[in-house]
Prior knowledge:
Helix content is 80%, strand content 0%. By secondary structure, the chain is mainly α.
Amino acid sequence: MKRVSMALLALAWMAGGARAAELAEVRAEPNLEKRARLALDASDAALTDARADYELGENERVATDAAKIADSADLALLSLDQTGKDPRKNFRWFKFAEVRTRDLLRRLDSFERDMSFADRPIIEKAKAEVQQVHDKLLRGLMEGKPK
């Protein structure tokens, strides 16, 4: 039974790695809104990879995946900021990113609770960074673009 679950976990890990777009590829996307969506997709895939790596006991890879989660969330926010659009008037992509980061925070929180207490600092920095991105997106939707 354990051998089957490890094989399934390895397959899921490889599929998640294949789906995850590298940040260099995401940064090459000229459409800023699409770049933000791709960055959020990459952060979701990195979290899936982090869970799989943690199950395999690869804490170094978990740390790398956690950094990718934070970098992807930052890239999404930066891309939306670079559009120059007011989040209150053109809210579609900003709200999309806010919802996705909120879901990502829930998944990060669940992952953190599933981790050993000694291993939790690995993911805390990424969680704090995603929380800051989420707060900035929400503030932009509520207050609008700074003048």
